[in-house]
Design brief:
One of its GO terms (molecular function) is hydrolase activity. The chain is mainly α and 162 residues long. The chain is built from 8 helices and 3 strands; from the N terminus they run αααβαβααβαα. The chain is 48% helix and 8% strand. It has a 3-stranded parallel beta sheet, with no helix packed on it.
Length: 162
């Protein structure tokens, strides 16, 4: 995107040509800009926070329910077991009545989940868990479609307690 913007700016004569073509200044500015963008993105990624949301229902409940909703976990090579353990501790501290997982439990492969023992970690959630599968589970199933129903394996692996 930065190169596209630089080309557009150069085309409209908004930046001088000596900044774009064979320029140390242009390269340094681009390096600083890209490092800043990626650094800010990484910082924001690590700023996960609890968001409280009160939902009013017309249905009579015996007591207020605490429901935890997770989405886009992308467990695997990117979000490792240590991160999952931290999330499970956060979930259990809430003492939820129910946990919902809204898809993308894995990040394209179930192999790192098996290798790192993440199934056992997910089973440490102290509440009933309901999940639906997302597009990343679909990507995984399209690769390994011939072996077993990977969608069923992922769901059982991640959600069902023995």
């Amino acid at each position: 995107m930065v190169f596209l913007l630089a080309d557009i700016a150069y085309g409209f004569h908004l930046i001088p040509s000596h900044w774009v073509c064979h320029s140390w200044i242009g390269s340094i500015v681009l390096l600083v800009l890209m490092s800043s963008i990626f650094g800010y993105g990484y910082w924001k990624y690590n700023q996960k926070a609890r968001v409280s949301l009160d939902i009013v229902t017309a249905k009579k409940l015996e007591r207020p329910l605490m429901i935890v909703l997770l989405s886009d976990l992308h467990l695997g090579y990117h979000n490792r077991a240590s991160e999952l353990k931290r999330w499970i501790n956060m979930i259990n501290k809430e003492n939820p009545d129910l946990v919902l997982i809204g898809g993308d439990i894995i990040d394209r492969s179930i192999r790192p989940l098996v290798h790192d023992g993440m199934a056992e970690m997910l089973r440490q959630i102290n509440a009933p868990v309901f999940a639906c599968l997302g597009n990343h589970e679909y990507y995984a199933s399209s690769k390994e479609n011939q072996k077993n129903s990977i969608k069923r394996r992922i769901f059982t692996f991640c959600v069902m307690k023995p």
